[in-house]
Amino acid sequence: MRASLFMASALHIHEDLAGGNDAERARLALVRARRAYYENSDWALAEAIRCHEIALSLADAGLCARARALQGAISLHRGDLRGALELALEAERHAERTADGAARTEVAALKAQVCFFTGSYGEAVSHAELAVSVSDTTEDAGLQIYARRATCMVFANVRVRDWPERMQELLALTIDSGDRWEEAISRNDLACHMQELGELEGAEREINRALEVASTITSGNRFARAVIHSTRADIRLLAGRADDALADGERSIALLTEDASPNPYVLAATVRAVVQARMALGQLDDARQAGEGALSWLGDRLPQTRSLILSTLAQALKEAGRFEDAYNALQRAAELEAQAFRELSELQLSLERATLEIRAARHERDALAAKAGQLAEAHAELERRADKLERLQEQLRDQADRDWLTGLGNRRYLARELERLTEERLAGPLSLAVLDLDHFKSINDRFGHQTGDKVLVRIAGLLCDALRGSDIVVRSGGEEFLLLMPRTDARAAKTCCERIRAAIRQEPWERIDPRLDVTTSVGIASADEPSDLEALVKLADQRLYEAKHAGRDRVVGGDELAPA
Question: Binning pLDDT at 50, 70 and 90, where does residue 425 land?
Fold first, then answer.
């Protein structure tokens, strides 16, 4: 059935309808290309361009509008929103000069999608309603199906009240027309709706029917099957069947990437499902590789889609406890979200200006106020999303800077504090101590890691109790802690560290285990207005080594100043 849609790929238009006029041949060629572009976008685009050249030679406004509208639909399918917007505006200007129902339908359908992707949801619904209503005046079943298919995304996402009835109507039209491709996609839409309602068993039954229908198409079903497998991956993921979801997701990606210009929106949604499935299976590195692979393929395109993939990765990394990686992924997502905000703002402005020009020609300037409000609403929504990402970014930054066990800062936190102190050119003496628990490995070996963790948590508490609010204490790794004491000379630092050493020795460790005994060794380095903090850290490490060599449970340093 669908094979006939592609038979013209190697033929010229005049060979398809010998004896017909140029305009009629071009219209029939556009219908074939319109039906085929999801599965064969290269050929459909070539046909649309050729038909536009014919339309220009004939000065046929309706044909020009339809050819440009199809080019715009293909651009949108490939993720080129800016190109789709420009083509939609040009097509609309042509359509203003014709009463051709097919031209008005196809242009309105494209405008509905472009408005939706640029955040003008009210305008998107208006164009979608117009596309459906005009198509119904033509008594062309194929055009009626096309109008409803193109506007499904708008009605579903804006959640118009009668969306379930619209789905059933479209499904009935596809069955009556015998169009198996459209029937398969309609059943996919129905499965998505059931999934949103939480009816997972019904959703899987319907998506399996969609796949059965798609499998009966002998040619031109790759994209349809990719969409269906992608949807089934989401359904099975929600049902807790991560293995099956992963298989569907990878199958969908394989089908999509057979095309040199795959639909990036479906690809991104599928990659997200694959990442989530691999996370559920404990395959964190593979999940991350899948996400990064999709980002590499997308390159500089579609910042909002790339942000979605990174946000999914960030959430997965956060749940795995890899807070620093999660923070970095979320930071990249926030940057892309800001880029998307700028690009969408520019596109909305272009759409606003073009709409104003067209409506001015039709004496509809009163629509400007409504459009301005809609633009403000879209901006407000984007700002809310950006604010949410920023808050989450702050939370992850704090988690990434904290040791998960003790709640103290970690090396990342220390590096930022050292950088801050260097930039502030801190006046006065500065002391730094490196504290290492003696024979801590034997504590873990004798009493177990759980006891060792309790010791580390208590050590953190003792350090915080002994230090001032302006001092900085971090767990630098294992049983080692770093104490940074601004405006503290060598003598005061040694007094403080001796107090800490005594407190650790005298702590009633029998509360954790009657056989437990804990001591610590400390190395101190001090400088008067230091200029090289890294050198100070190295000196403190050296003195810690000396304390260990001298028998442990002692403080070394604090008697002399390091070189300034």
Answer: low
